[in-house]
Amino acid sequence: ENELAAEEMSGASARGKKRARSWKRGRGGSKPDVWDPKKTRRFEGRDDGRQKKDHDGAEGTGWERFPLTNAAFEEYYQQQGVVPSDEWDAFLECLRKRLPSTFRINGSGKYAAYLKKKLQEKLVAGLQTQGTLELDGYAVQPPRPIPWYPHDLAWHIDCSRNQIRKVPLLAQIHDFLKRENDIGSISRQEEVSMIPPLMLDVQPEHWVLDMCAAPGSKTLQLLELVQGTEGQASTGLVVANDADIKRCNLLIHQTKRMNSPCLVVTNHEAQSYPMVKRTTDAGQELLQYDRILCDVPCSGDGTMRKAPDLWRRWTPGSANGLHPLQLKIAKKAAQLLKVGGRLVYSTCSLNPVENEAVVAALLKHCEGRLQLVDMSQSFAPLKRRPGLVTWKVRGKRAGSKWFDAWDQVDPSDPDAGGLVESMFPPLEGSETALSRCVRVLPHHGDTGGFFVAVLEKTAELPVPASHVSQNARKGHQHTDNDKSDHRDVPAPTPAPAQASAPAREQAIPADGPECTEASVLETTVGPSDPQDQQQGQPEQDGMQEQGPKGILPKGQDVVAPAAPREDRGTLDDTPPSRTVLDPPKERPLTKSKKSSGVDPIVPVTDPDLLHSIGDFYGLSALPYPLHQCLISRTPGAPVPKKLYYISSSAKELLDADRRGSLRVFSVGVKAFERQSMKDGSVPCKFRLAQDSVRFLAPYVSKQRLALRLSDFRALLKHRCLLTTGNESSSVPLLSDPAAVEDLRSGRCGPGTCVISIRKDDTLEPIVESGLSLEEFTVTAWQGAKSLNLLVGEVESSKLLDALADQFAPAETKENKGESRKMRNRLVMWMIDESVVIFHCDAFR
Question: Which of 159, 212, 348, 684 is an active site residue?
């Protein structure tokens, strides 16, 4: 105890000294406040292969390149036969090169086609006329489309991300990538990472689950496929999940550029993803998904080209340790998949223990109810190899022996530590199936390494008889109080019993393949963490299946039944029957969990609030009633700070999760934000957010203002227009007489308004940018003397660029005659046989 106390005191003393040194640092007054490049050290190890020699400030501190060699790695994969022997040298040479840059044009509509045309005609064509590009003595080809990606929407550049800056001729490409990435028009994504979402074959009506979604590049791809070519909310849904709450923030940041109301972000461990049951006419059924993507955590040795530090850190034990987790995630995905649905299992690893071994064990577990799909004819230009049908397994220690089959493993052998039966090749029957897997090797297409397996579910997975009998016993434990609390809900079928914590631990042995379907069900019927176990208590009187309760239209005593979800609705459409004598209580759609850091989702049930929004903006003919598409994350607040717009499919998911099993981190798009007006000049307490303007603007009949193209451009450029007074040098004056009259007459009152370009027959676009006049829509705040833009600088610059490309500076047909006259008045001087043309200011 004395020694421990002395250590603690010495540690505290050392920490105190460190704080003292940091407190004194920089207070001498002699250090110049300038940047000295000679004393500044940069770390670019992830791209240029450099690492820091010392981390303790020892003499000789500097940088050295990572050793791009690993004898254990080379021996392991030569033994596995992953690469043909005649291609081994080319494989290693490619792994030691930097990974080229690739990017993808987001979306698939007219704007994506316009952006592709702009890239081809203005940037790539200009580079092709410059001759051969060189970098470090090697010839560099101009950017080119990836041949196997549909519609040439994915592009390949021979240089890495850092090298692009070093080539002067690629400066325009670098500026284009930086600007469009900030705007959200493109995504920088590795080429092989684009494969799994395409092989899922997602349709706009599908419900898709991405089990390990962060950082979100594949999720963004899935959202584009669900939303279709028009970019509107569809009947589909994308549920993006990640176990790390910090990575969930990264996922939201990546997908925010889509502003999709059909995206739900959850925070769960994928192997314990909650099972949600919904009530139907036939009783209760498990909520399943049409498509599931399992891009599982892996050792990542296929990414050595962009992460060269993996060369020195690679060991075979990394794959062995991850194999049980990968198999559990795959089993959970198979359980959540609909019959006839498609599951894609993928890794960025070359190791068969993480790839074919997991697929083989999953096929064995599902007893023929899951089948591999042959993708050899899909995306024909993609260079690939079939999956392995045999491989070896090695212990995690350096120099450990090899094993060809499970029966060769002796549990007492120290080299067999951590090995399980599912890591080994199947004995018989799976050779043909495993060859349907897809392997992408780096040297075949100048990419990273990748593995993909596409599976389809032909029937429901088997459930052991012991689990069925346990459910039957559980069904008799309901009390009379439970029945009275649920008198308005159809009687559910007996639910699977929730295992205790020790039972769950015993249900999943260390050798993943020995898990039965019952053990998998036991771990996921209810929430997986101790806080979620409280959700197993009897449900309280909460949300009805058809929609949130308690939105009573003004002047109505009895609430009529709601219209079906597919019908169009208005503000006065109402949820299931309630009476004024029995006022509803606001219940959250999801329950809050202690220490989870996630706010519950609360429906917007205040009729005064809903009517103030509907009356102020003139919302009418909505796809479904307003009270069914707005939620908040502030329970108990008199006036929520933000209201979010969700799609019908997202609401259906939240309604089905009556037990609050899902930890929903984010859902929907910000639609309205609370505003405070001291003088009370604006009757509505909420302003319309730009994030949801493309969904709600078509239904806004009030607070609209149409501007001439010149005024709309000026508003985007200066972010403010004066409506009264004199024009200043920095803020222009609104010059459109029709718009000024709308403001003076009160047709567009003070507060948030929706601004668009006036439709005019004299407007003649010079190119088709893919954006119609209706899509040039922004939100602004109308004050007493000015219009102030409520759009971020990134989005306003995107609209300005599109306007510059679509419309000539001379806006109307009437101006065209004057423009031709100005061309005829150009003055030319001959100077040494050269023609110099001076444009006058009016024409310019």
Answer: 348
